[in-house]
Write a structure and sequence with these properties.
With 358 residues, this protein is an alpha+beta fold. It is built from 12 helices and 17 strands. It has 2 domains: 11-186 and 244-357, no CATH class; 192-241, no CATH class. The chain starts with 10 loop residues before the first helix and ends with a helix.
Length: 358
Amino acid sequence: MTDAAAITPTPDLLDGWADDLLRGPVALHLKQRLLPVEGEGAVIFPPTYADDKHPYCIDTLSDGTRVAQIDSVGSQANRMEPLFKRAPSGQPENPLASLVPQVEISIGNERTVSILDAGHRLGDALVRSSDLAEEAHKAFRIYHDDGDAGPIARLAPTSLIFGAWDSRDTQAKLPRVVQSVIRAWDVNVLTRSAQYSPPVDYAALDLFSEDEKRKAENNNKSPLAQRGFVPVPSTGAPGGVVARGGVFRDVTVNLVALRQLGGENGAALRRYALGLALVAATADQDGFLRQGCLLTPDPGAPATWTVVQRNGQRTLVALTFEAALDYARDAARRFGVGPDRRAVFAKDRAEADLKAKA
């Protein structure tokens, strides 16, 4: 990294990053140290997976260092994308909502789902099961055949930012422009145990016999134990990790992938996409990832943004959320945000989709 002062990303400079195919930098990168709210060295809980022997995703490096995944790339994307949702009724207006079309799908008479909450974005089964199906198919097909991302940008621009794969239909694949992941370094893994004791003696109430009680106690496979009628222990359960090497969030804005977005109005589209990417990457995150894992930025280790050139040169960038939002608003105005939409889920479309897959 150079020793020079951080550069200020002016609108003209950002436009160049979006447009310069031959000389533009390859990426922006954020390194951010996070702390548990309980403080340095506190226990945090990674996500668990359906594997009794290895419930956490922990890798061991060649030097013996163990690295735990605290939040995956996909999970981080699913946390950032709803930043662009319209605020619920009665809450203050979300300034980011006007940057993207608000597309909602009605399910029955009482429930709606925003496409910003759909895990596979424009390629989600919910979209294929609604009256947006043909339009989404056409948008993916145009991108797949002609490289024109314009129709997708008009309908679901966050699919350009966080990636989408229309794997059940056109096979069109959009790479992620924004990638974020949280890892804990040099971790020690803990376990925990607990004992449940029912509030009353149900055998004494003649709900079952003392012999049945004795056989079911401490046997978590017993129906009486599973239903909470007898004492039962829980031992050796995952108890979180202690990160001796710190917890870090890495965010990468892939400018090469961004500049591959084409279309009739390609320059405006790429700048619009860059604006959305920068807003998503710089916005404050809700650090409550799961029970036992509430993280905040470390005020003693300020986050740093760097721009990475084609030759590997790295330069500090004074990138702020406020500057990103100003750029995104101007880019959205120039490109033209697609209209808000309300689609309807149709059971017959879902059934037809299932039959087509079969």
